Amino acid sequence: MKTLPSNSYAQLCDHVREIALVQSIESLLEWDERTGMPAAAGSYRADQMSHLAGRVHQLWTDPRMADWLAELAESPLAAQHESDAAVTIRELRRLYNKKVRLPQALVEAISRAAVLGQQGWVVAKRSGDYVGFRPLLERLIALKREEAAAFGFEDSAYDPLLDEYEPGASTADVACVLAALREDLVPFLNAVVAATHHAPAGQRPGSRKPAVLTPVGSNAVLDGNFPLDLQAAFGQMAAEQVGFDFGAGRLDVSAHPFCTQLGPRDHRLTTRYAERDLTDALFSTLHEVGHGLYQQGLPAEHFGLPLGEAISLGIHESQSRLWENLVGRSRAYWEWMLPQAKRTFPSALGDVSLDQFYRQINQVRPSLVRIESDEVTYNLHILVRFELEQELLSGELTATDLPEAWSSRYEQYLGVRPANHSEGVLQDIHWSAGAIGYFPTYTLGNLYAAQFFEQAAADLGPFEEMFRRGEFAPLLGWLQNNIHRHGRRYSAGELVERVTGRALSHEPLMRHFRAKFGTLYGVS
Ligand code: ZN
Question: Is residue 212 within 8 Å of residue 196, measured between CB atoms?
Fold first, then answer.
């Protein structure tokens, strides 16, 4: 007897909820590993996690998955365009079809090569020994080529790898929007750099303060003593003010800040503190809070199913960049925040003016290291990586020639050249972990963020007055209503068109740069 489609649908959803349950336990173990696990627990933790990862793979490849999806493909449930059931079936079929194309042996080979790659990278980064690391990278590139071939592609081997992080995006479309950004961004950056080099402080018409208060690389204006317990309390307060719900979340410490979800109502953020620097921890907290707010805005009743999940890394990143940069690095935000910071850290910040503070947190300067770069140059760091990883995958560039290609691309886009591999080609962990296709999602996040923020401002009126008064609920409500609550109902491309009426473009981000940094640096 044939099962009813509604029965198949219920069974499929129960099964996928079980996958989410097992994955959430894996995430909890990973969170613990990165926040508080004793070092000696490492090897047993690896056993625990690989046990659960194996269980997840088993559940995904359960033969009943294919049966349910085949039955549902023919059913009226799948035909109700944009209904909850149709979206769920569509997304699960897409995920399942990708997973079954990968041979088990290849999955295991990639996972092993990624573990070895990351371990090798840690050593290589410390010593700067790229040549020693190169065979590991070559092995990973070869495996990622095999993976792309197993997934299958029409235009570019990069397409199916990008799709893992940004479902539905094509390499050609991403390349097109990033090239348009580069064309405007490089001359704009050159103008900013020229302004900081040539305009003597105080002599530019209309500028009340010099554009650069301190030498490159210095944070002297904000250098001071910021006790760690006070920073933690201050960061928690900042997270609460923008709407993060600590009834369903925590903020802890880890070496590399991250955000993870351990259940429908369990959202974990981490940051790291430095005694002499307030802003590093605070901006990384606001960044992770942005990720956390997105997760808290996803419908909890659909946890584990596509309607309860984030669309893509680019959309996820748009939420973190929006709160970190567009809110957190705005003047209006610090009109509200600086008096509170001064009350918490009177000796360190007592003499700092709003102008000084605002300029200090918005210095633009071409540099070598991505994670230390500013809002403007950040995207050029991403462009370098996006271009090089495509060339590595296609074979146009070999791992042997990579360091030189890296250096000359940095010179071309940023005007700087690394003196060693640690601050050059070895600075990021991504490639050593097999994450090829990940980097562009950072810049996509910046682009989505600017386009959403512009639309939110058009819908709600200028935000300056609200931020100055510490009112963030209207912005958060807009994000929840327009973005968060949909889960994966739309692809990233569909969502941005639906919300802003236009396809993704580099123009809102450039408008933001010109308005903010053009004023700060006296360029247009
Ligand atoms: Zn992020």
Answer: yes
Number of H helices, E strands in the chain: 22, 3
User: 408-417 pLDDT, tens per residue?
Assistant: 999 999 999 9
Lowest mean pLDDT among 78-87, 345-354, 366-375, 475-484: 78-87
Q: Between 103 and 158, name the one with better pLDDT.
A: 158
Residues with CB under 5 A from ligand 1 (ion): 320
Rounded CA-CA distance 79/488 in Å is 17
Could you tell me the distance, in angstroms and rounded to a whole number, from the CA of residue 102 to the centre of ligand 1?
Answer: 28
Q: Which two tokens stand for residue 157?
A: 């081997």
Structure tokens of 391?
């060339």
pTM: 0.93
Where along the chain do its domains lie? Answer: 8-152, 173-521
- Examine the residue annotation and report whether 288 is marked as an active-site residue of this protein: yes
Residue 442 CA to ligand 1 center (angstroms) comes to 8
Tokens at 46, concatenated: 């690896």
Look at residue 95 in the predicted model and tell me its pLDDT: 93
Instruction: Report the CATH fold assignment for 173-521.
Output: Neurolysin; domain 3 (1.10.1370)
In the predicted structure, residue 201 carries a pLDDT above the cut 80: no
Active site residue: 71, 91, 166, 288, which one?
288
SS3 letters for 96-158? HHHHHHCCHHHHHHHHHHHHHHHHHHHHHHHHCCHHHHHHHHHHHHHHHHHHHHHHCCCCCCH
Phi-psi region of 437 (alpha: psi -120 to 50; beta: other; left: phi over 0): left
For the stretch 145-159, pLDDT in tens is: 999 999 999 999 999
> To which H or E segment does residue 497 belong?
helix 492-500
CA of 320 to the centre of ligand 1 (A): 6
